[in-house]
């Protein structure tokens, strides 16, 4: 009997040890089934003499779409998950639904065969070389995204495919094929995007803190300010969605989109005002209660960002696939023209993004949501606002930006602002202690009881009065020079994980060269197989 119990125990331990491997096999199996399904569908369609080549290209496009879902989509829902506004399962459902909807409804009918003019496609040569180039680029971009996802590093899918097209293009036709001015703007976006995202997110958080969390009655301040903040969010996201998400099906200029967004913002303010005023808040602290007011706006923001992302970035997967399809069906003469995206190609992209998100998205979602800095709903709201407003402003100024880099930069910006504010508060505390007797804890506590709930202006006056007393020799403290020097050493709390900062920055810097090198090697391999 004892032996049977021991054997059962060992079986349980073996089952637990093998469970991660079983989960990995399950994910791999689902991904392979999707790609096999794509191949089978394209072969059954029988599109021209190149149907087998098109089937292979479609499989690679589906693989690319899965990797976009696994990596890039995390930027839209990561902050909402990290702040507990959404569960991981809820985020996956919302993101998959709205990514697919954005791709199918607003993904567009026409894209250029080579995105962003990275290379001069007229220099590529015949149709076969062009097809091999695009296949190499798709596969290399997907492989790099796969590697980055395994590392838990959020990288730009646009930069991945741009680097891959560049590398394969150079391998096919030499360095003169590249559009180096366009590459210069992409390199500039490595710096512009995260810096802008971080600054805008930090500015929003500072505004929220001054207007809500630094007020004496935090909850009353939140009930007043949240409707205005939601209205600003509604304006920003409506404008963003019209300009970036629906631009393929509804063309409007910036002014018109802004005015429509403004109307939606005003309507949102009128609707949210009574809800915020009457909502029952159940947080254990005032700050937790305030965060509850930001939960619903965050869920909407995750959905809208996912829709806009699906409408825009699905082209990273299906644009090159559409170009391959066009050349294989219509012949090599079509290399230099724009390619229509067939509906089946859009469906491959939409389903692939949804499957990749569900199978492999959680890893990067956790990196964005909880492994860089601690997020609550207020901080996550500021990151979402940064993602929408920065793209709008940058596009109007003609600045090259990456939505991935903006979102991640926003997370870091929020974290670094928290560090600064914590350090500043510690410095204020040392000033207060320095102007009271060392053992007079009652006086310090009494001062802090008046200081904490005071307004920002009142706090400033109180600190000035303390310093004035010191000048008049009314300071009761008698510290030695060494003790006073010690008081000036403020403990610096690191609320942003530097290891994550370095790892993500390194992944960003090597994305274009890494995907370019892989694409060049793959092009030589494919050309050798097809001509040998």
Can you summarize this structure?
This protein is mainly α and 532 residues long. It has 18 helices and two strands.
Task: Explain how this protein is built.
- α8 (218-245) packs parallel to α10.
- With 532 residues, the protein is mainly α.
- The chain contains 18 helices and two strands.
- The protein has one domain (26-419, 495-531).
- The longest helix has 44 residues, at 2-45.
Total count of helical runs of at least 4 residues: 18
Overall number of domains: 1
Alpha carbon gyration radius = 28 Å
Strand composition percent? under 5%
Principal-axes geometry comes out as elongated
Distance from first to last alpha carbon = 67 Å
DSSP strand count: 2
Helix % is over 70%
Order of strands in the sheet with the most strands?
1-2
- The overall pLDDT, averaged over residues, is 81
What are the SSEs and their pairings?
Elements: H1 2-45, H2 51-71, H3 74-82, H4 88-106, E1 110-111, H5 127-151, H6 157-173, H7 180-213, H8 218-245, H9 254-278, H10 286-292, H11 295-330, E2 339-340, H12 343-370, H13 377-397, H14 403-434, H15 441-451, H16 456-471, H17 481-487, H18 498-531
Antiparallel strand pairs: 1-2
Helix pairs in contact: 1-2, 1-12, 2-5, 2-11, 2-12, 3-4, 3-12, 3-13, 4-11, 4-12, 5-6, 5-11, 5-18, 6-18, 7-8, 7-13, 7-14, 8-9, 8-10, 8-11, 8-13, 11-12, 11-13, 13-14
What labels describe this entry?
1% strand; mainly alpha; 18 helices; 532 residues; two-stranded antiparallel sheet; single chain; 2 strands
